Amino acid sequence: MAGHVGIVACSAEGAALCYRTICAEAAPVMGEHNHPQITMHTHPLADYLVGIRAGDWSAVAELMLDSTRIVAAAGAELAVCPDNTIHQAFELVEPRSPIRWLHIAREVARAAKDRGYRTVGVLGTKYLMTGPVYPDALAAEGIERIIPDGPQRERIDEIIFGQLVYGVMTNESRGWFCEVIEQMKSRRAEAVVLGCTEIPLLIDEAVSPLPTLDSTRLLARAAIREATRAGGS
After folding, report:
1. What predicted TM-score, i.e. pTM, was given to this entire model?
2. What is the mean pLDDT of residues 43-71?
């Protein structure tokens, strides 16, 4: 039997995509209609935003830890969080966690290195784009990062919190994101990190001017890998 995955969720659409990806993509590894056991817990996004907006990452960590304890109590052996922004609290969470974690940005950085990218653009919330999560993870793999300018970051943030987290995907927003990605391409980006877990619902390889690094699905695939490895150990 494969290991039991705990999803520490933050925003609904990204968490749902992560859950669906684990369930759908485990079958080639585990057999028809098979996937690891999954337990998910979600504090309201509103609770997380109090800490995020105040820069109080210890408060964010406490919410993550509370969810971790809940999924661990249900039997989860491995935790993942399909939210890039709150990984800024990861270093406060991991030492106190009752179970092992995967780090979303490290999984993305490994994939970028495996694909031979040296410079990537990063899209996400304004907190994520200007925060340390991706600079640290990418630098560890020798990869440079490019982010949009200030007004673009503000608009991306508005679209994420005003549309994407509610499952609203418009052609206008899709076209504008593609313009931003095209500008990153002109600045030497070789790929783009979809670093908000809802962005893959709006942008994919079919429309993006650059190859995409889908943080949500990369994390889900890493969870499948680790869960099946645990089950075979």
Report:
1. 0.95
2. 98
